[in-house]
Amino acid sequence: MNVSPPTAAERPDRRHSLITALLAFASVAILLMTLWLLGSARRDPYIQATLNFTGSLDHGGQLFRINCAGCHGIAAQGLLGPQLAGITKHASDTTLIRQIISGRTPPMPSFEIEPKSMADLLAYLHSLT
Mutual orientation of helices 93-102 and 115-127 as an angle, nearest 10°? Predict the structure, then answer.
């Protein structure tokens, strides 16, 4: 049996099929990862405890000025750290909590406080426009 190599006309169809399959695989992987992250956020007792509180804007402002303003600016305008005005329009409370407690983007330090105080800090971040 003699198998000839694919013709030039057949090659684009193969590439198109491979690209389509890879895109489908990537889409499913992203969907599964998103569902996993959402599920893990619901199981994290610290995040759940924080989200169960109603934060105090005044206390959150005090916490921000003491712990965050050195890098993010007194008006959250950004200095060494990024500008935080409007951050809650772009990031969920769960994402913000994880960022704050993990410090995963250096030079941000990890910063874990009691859930009520974290709720206060979130209330302050929501007030920044």
Answer: 120
